[in-house]
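Record passed on here:
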Amino acid sequence: MQSSHHTLRQTSLEILSIVDNVPTLPDQFIKIQDMLEDADSTLDDLTAIIETDQATAAILLKVANSSYYNPLGAPVSNLAYAISRLGRQETGDIALSMSLLYGFAIPAGIAIIRSFWTHAFAVAQISRHLSTHINQAKNSPDVIFIAGLLHDIGRIILSMRIDMSYFEKEFPFFDEKALMLAEQEAYGIDHAEAGQVVLKLWDIPSDIQDIVANHHMNKPSSVDIQICQFADSFAAEHLSNILDIEDVQVKLKEGLLEQALTAFIEQI
């Protein structure tokens, strides 16, 4: 049994380590991230990237016209105005998430794909908020946001390169411990390790790799990992029925972020 598991593990790792066989981060994601990291870039630069993507533009307009961002009921129909109303950070967060939603050809139904990335977006947003309001985090809120956004990327990779029927199995309904065990049994590795392997191939910073690799560990070895782990559990408990990124953005603004922060502070 041990030998069989070892062989299965080695096979999976070999498949994931073949660079030509590993999907790349979407071009739109890389463009937006590079622009956000450029201190000299402007909202006009961000608008120029996003206006080529109708789906993302539509989502931004919807959020900008929500009651939270538009309390006076003055609707906007112009993308530039919508981005100006939301601001650079909010716009960038949504645009990065949307680029992943539409950037990977995941072998799964659209409802599963939307649910997956909506959860990732929620974890990223909660993680950013927690890291902004406590001083124990090692990394910047932007880094922790990306770690939250990519925390389950290993599941995408498993479905694209190891088992195209991954999302057709009962895995989405498992709790985290059962999921990790089921993945180990089926593939010899779990999605946390698969995520770390691919993030390394993508030259993603090691701190993000570490958070992704350990976001299911029993005793988190750093506050940054603890933040992601808490955000993952909180989002699963409070936002599991929301299937759209824009609805998560609005819902979090209605008090859930402060609720998460209070619960997290009591925990650490």
